[in-house]
Amino acid sequence: MKPMAKNTKHKKAESVAETLCSFSGFLCDIVISVYMIVILMVLPLYNKGYARIGTEKETFFLKTMTYGAKTLLPVFLLWLLFRLVTAVQKKELPKFTEWPAGLWKNLSVTDRFAVFYGIAVLVSYLFTNYREEALWGTASWRMGMWTQLGAVIVL
Description:
By secondary structure, this protein is mainly α.
């Protein structure tokens, strides 16, 4: 009777860059999930009276958006770096001219409408005569360009 041959087929080992890319992507998912939980569960409960509900919620939204961006940006940059290293190692890096078309094809219909809305907000800001109010919003309702673009990015 012949001895059974060992299975010599092994999974291809992940490189360090691939592992770090996966881990930093996982960290991005955690930060985004915590941010969404805070926005969806805490923001509706955060107010100090009906008269100031818009201002208070806007302040809360801007603070959480700022803290979320400060937390997510370094993790996202790490993920991007490791993703680029992995793509270079595997020779999967597309030409620079192919990126916009590839990115556009991967967007959902909702994401495409969000892009168009973001462009409309920017164009509106560029052609207004009231730049200060358009940037931050009015004193009683702070829904200016930065707040609108923050909402687009969250989508």
